[in-house]
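new request in #modeling-help
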Amino acid sequence: MSLLMQREDGTGGQALATPPPLTDTEIAIPARRSELHDYEIDGEAVIFDTRTHGMYLLNQTALAVFRNCDGRTTMRQVAESLSETYDVAPEDALAHVEHIVAMFSHSRLLDLGRES
Amino acid sequence: MTDSVAQTAGASTEQYLHCKIGSINVTVQSDDQKLLDDLRVLYHGYDRPSPVPEQAIRMVIRDTGRSRLRGRRYRIYGDGEEIGRERSRREVLPFVEWGINWRVIANHPEYLQVHAGTMAHLGRGFVFAAAPGSGKSTLAAGLLARGWTYLSDEFALIDRKTLRLHPFPKALCIKAGSFEVVRRLGLSFTGHRYYVKGFKGRVGYINPHVAEPYMAPDPTPIRYIVFPKYTGTDRPHLYPISRARALLDLAECTFNRNVLSDQLLSVLGDAVSQAQCFRLEAGAIEDTCDLIESSLCRAPEPAHNAGLLTSGTKCISPSRGAKPNVPPSRRNFLRGAVKLAYVTPAVLALNPQEALAAGSNHSCYPAGHVCPGQELCCDDMVCSGGVCTNEVCVESGGLCFADSDCCTNDCQLGACQ
């Protein structure tokens, strides 16, 4: 599954390679780091990490996942929410959520938590 | 034009040139009459009869002597700091120009400073943001020749409070590869000579006052943000991009993004929100300018929240633009549950270190490709000035975006230390 956001002119963007799979995915509760600034525009968002000065562009569905990384919502719940809003099967949504959350984590945008 | 003030200091005679370039005050001091005469021609129309305020940028040029092998050499200082050492006569003017740019970055934090050409037309501000070598200055020259209002070929100075473009109408710097193109536009180079600007090689300068007296416009609202790239195509293309993507790319071109930090996204985001955003594949200058004028200039004023072209505008290859949301499936419609079309979640990283840490398997960037980091360039190339190149690194005093641009690997406030 490619999670590369292609440039509109067809040239390649900067791929974040497939990260290692998460464990206990059904109970993982991702939480955004507090130092992140974001600007939402036309349904997408740009994230600015004030610590590393890294910047990230999230498309609409990635933003929906990111917004649900609130330290209270499990990834399965996030996937269910996506499935209710978008035309996507729940199992597909969960696979995508796991992947994008792993990318967020690998990019140090999250503090991964566990349900107590 | 008023002569500069001459003062006697010991055996030499110091000459001064006082200028106001847009809202930027500059004083240039030198004991070399001919050099100052060159600058006086370049800044014709900007010079002032009396010393400018204390806050002026102060450039000093010192003759360090002459050797048989190397000819006369000069040392250049910007606000007391040495920025150029042992430079030839042809290098002095570009160094002074660059030094002024560098001091603008350092002295004017009230502006968001984006590496971009900026023009105004019919009261609308255009930002042409791109890495060096993308054709910004040539494009600015092409539009200047058509009567557009020139704001800058180097900086988009965006007021952080009003989000308006302020002019910094320094002389346009044109690289040798575009000399003939610019001459065909009917524009002439100042002093009818070329200069040498670091790794960019030969350059010439066009004083925007040459065509007619330049009137600095009022601060102009940004209505269009365009990312040009010269590809030499025989069919220039202009296609819309999402404003979020424009925000990311514009941040990449912002000189003082790390200084602004907390405010960067809000200020830049608000500026982008009031504009329509495009990528431009540029070809011949006349065709490219025709495309810009026909596609954008005759369009109605864009709505603040319009992400796509408004009706009445024309874009070549609109299918390459942002994809519309597809209608819900028939099955969902029959169920009575109308769901949004699903796009796989995706994230694009501007910071290449993140990609590398994740073991990115992307292919390397070829020569001429925009590169936020050197590691992304192929083979033995370097990421210099934001572009993968076989050229050498930027020497001390040269323009830079990142430490990797510099031979010293130390880039501060846009200058290699």
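bot summary: Residues 1-11, 303-335, 352-363 of chain B have pLDDT under 50 and may be disordered.
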